[in-house]
Write a structure and sequence with these properties.
The chain has about 475 residues and is mainly beta. Helices cover about 5% and strands about 30% of the residues. It contains 4 helices and 25 strands. The strands form 6 sheets. An 8-stranded antiparallel beta sheet has the order 6-7-8-9-16-13-12-11. A 5-stranded antiparallel beta sheet has the order 5-4-10-15-14. The two termini are about 30 Å apart.
Length: about 475
């Protein structure tokens, strides 16, 4: 649950490229919600894809839009394997992704209820993001952003291609503009274009079913490499379309509901193999005036074999080799998500430790600690609109009962710097691992730690889970 805190929020810091993320919204113009003549994603998005009609008047007349359509087109983000990410900037989805990986994937479907469970806004396909380049690796809403709030929930989207990788990070934020609680149901997905040969290749739980036990999975197109009409559903390949990996939640997430059918994800589960249309469905509350976000990662490797053809002429890569790359990537992202550039204090509900406030060992989602380490444990304390980190009384700050470490010169091992590039000074405080062990704050059974301290006569404290690991990381 997203809760407005009245204490200092200590959050994940990942030092890397500086990317500004905005969750602003606008009421200036709006695109249509679902109506009786907009039944499914195919019908809706064809009016916003480059392959669809280019007659703006026809589109506006059909959906009674007036003069509200934003300029649309394809925006591009790089990928290390040579395939380019082609993004339709209006619905904000991948069009093809190279080698026929997708048939429009990554768009959003929403439904909103009030605190009592009554539907406020029915099934709505989102469009109008107007994603524009913010440097080489990021797409963010441009001046013509025109997504109408859905059931008083304003939505923004950003898409980030991490340099030197083959994955995208979709980052969607949902702001409650109403005066009462809203229950948001959001579905992320679309068409992966593997058609009747869609095959679940890997899952985090090791089986071939995607369910609430999983944090990542990989899908492939599995056909005979000599007869393209014959799906063989072999999870080990050859992958006759690029293998696609999805890191869609953390191990401790509770917002994920199911993999659902593309147009009815909130009510109907995805049947699995043989169906290339699906959405990852989430449900979560958003309090009045609050913003909650979802993040998900989409990896796309290279196709291993071309159909039809005669082996070995149609074999591009060894059987299963590109599948293994996709699995390794999303497995890592599920364990250690790349949140580089996301503002401090952002609550990403499907990665719930980002909402806890305090973060042990910035840059690591599970907060891994080793009892035999002779080093120090860093904790980042960002300044916010409600809190100035420079006002902390460092002599009172404790991790458990352990004070901040002391340097050889006798000064406390802490310093102020602008960690997130927002112009405010943030605090990094360090604590000796063996001091925590000696004080009994860190043991083999420790599952959480609390940071506390005083500032301007007030007291703050935050608790976060930690993971005891056998080896020094």
């Amino acid at each position: 649950m997203l809760i407005k805190r009245h204490v200092v929020s200590l959050t994940l810091i990942i030092l890397g490229s500086s990317i500004l993320v905005s969750c602003q919204w606008s009421n200036e113009t709006s695109l249509p919600n679902t109506s009786s003549d907009i039944v499914n994603a195919d019908e809706y998005f064809q009016y916003y894809d480059p392959e669809g009609t280019t007659d703006e008047e026809e589109r506006e007349d059909r959906y009674d839009l007036g003069d509200t359509l934003v300029p649309q087109g394809t925006r591009y983000l790089p990928s290390a394997n040579g395939l380019v990410w082609d993004i339709n900037n209006v619905p904000g989805h991948v069009i093809d992704g190279g080698e026929g990986a997708f048939g429009n994937f990554g768009n959003l479907l929403m439904r909103v209820k009030d605190g009592g469970g009554t539907t406020v806004a029915g099934k709505t396909f989102l469009s109008g993001f107007d994603l524009e380049p913010q440097g080489e690796y990021l797409l963010a809403p441009g001046d013509n952003y025109a997504v109408a709030p859905v059931g008083d929930i304003a939505v923004t989207r950003e898409i980030y291609a991490a340099p030197g990788t083959n994955y995208l990070r979709f980052f969607d934020c949902f702001t409650n503009t109403a005066g009462t609680l809203r229950q948001v149901e959001s579905g992320w997905g679309g068409d992966v274009k593997s058609r009747a040969a869609t095959t679940i290749s890997r899952t985090s739980s090791g089986d071939l079913t995607v369910d609430a036990n999983d944090t990542y999975w990989v899908s492939i197109e599995s056909r005979s490499i000599t007869s393209p009409h014959d799906p063989i559903f072999d999870p080990d390949g050859y992958a006759t379309d690029p293998p696609i990996g999805y890191a869609f939640r953390a191990f401790d997430d509770t917002s994920f509901v199911r993999i659902g059918q593309r147009d009815t994800p909130f009510t109907n589960p995805w049947p699995g193999n043989g169906d290339d249309d699906f959405r990852h469905a989430y449900a979560f509350p958003v309090s009045p005036g609050e913003t909650a976000c979802l993040a998900y990662f989409l990896d796309r490797e290279r196709e291993e074999a071309v159909t039809p053809g005669t082996p070995p002429d149609n074999i591009n890569f060894p059987r299963g080799s590109e599948i293994a790359k996709a699995e390794a990537t999303v497995e890592h992202l599920a364990e250690e998500p790349n949140f580089s550039g996301i503002p401090l204090g952002t609550c990403i509900v499907n990665w719930p430790r980002s909402c806890d406030g305090i973060d042990i060992k910035p840059g690591s989602y599970k907060n891994p600690l080793n009892l035999t380490s002779d080093g120090v444990i860093p904790v980042a304390v960002p300044s916010t609109d409600e809190f100035d980190a420079s006002t902390l009384d460092l002599t009172t700050v404790r991790l458990g009962t352990t004070p901040i470490a002391t340097k050889r010169n006798g000064k406390l091992h802490a310093n102020l710097e602008d960690l997130d590039g927002d112009g405010d000074l943030d605090l990094i405080a360090h604590f000796e691992t063996q001091a925590l062990v000696a004080a009994g704050d860190l043991t083999e059974t420790t599952t959480e730690l609390t940071l506390s301290g005083d500032y301007n006569g007030s007291v703050f404290e935050e608790t976060t889970p930690v993971t005891i690991v056998p080896d020094v990381l």
